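Q: Here's a chain of 237 amino acids. Please give me its 3D structure as tokens.
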Amino acid sequence: MDETMELIQSAHAGDKEARDRLVADNMGLIWCVVRRFLGRGHEPEDLFQIGSIGLLKAIDKFDTSYDVRFSTYAVPMITGEIKRFLRDDGMIKISRSLKEMAARAGAEKERLGTSLGREPTLTELAASLQVEPMELAAAMESGAEVESLSKIIYHGDGNAICLIDKLEDMRQEDEGVLNRVVVAKLLEELPPQDARLITMRYYLDKTQTQVAQELGISQVQVSRMEKKILRTMRKKL
């Protein structure tokens, strides 16, 4: 078990020093997320404080049995906390082009669904709109409502379940919690074949075997390439 996992376990057991150490060790991660939200009317230090709340929630909620790096788990938590703050303050701005594409996608999705008798895939929808799947995914993601992590999504047997509680139900894989919009931007910097592989795996939900068949390589090669590409993307993140 690495040092981060040991610190998290100690923090869960009530060790304040371990919790403070985790915050100190991950300050760079908070600033990395904060930089994506600069220029929206708030001081960087204010956004950092909000992001710190997300980091603390990630520390408290992280399950060491997950096969996922803590930093990968923490990024969406930090991002979500800042987005909620900006949303409540009316500061999140979506570009007009993304709004228009998201609106077109909604109408086309309904039309295709009626024609096909089922919900169209992202690839089918992108082809119909004559746009790239990654570009369409980013547009659809931008149009999604930003939810409060404290929003109650279920109330039964006297116990309320908040959105943040359901984060533990996310795919228990290192790559499953990557922010899709961030990934779309990172994909633009990858070689075409690498970008295609990641798109098929995480936007089109294809298995490694299916990807191998489309690329004309073995499943083992896909697995190795995928791990290498994701390592590169994490470093840039």
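Q: Can you summarize the key feature?
A: The two ends are 24 Å apart (CA to CA).
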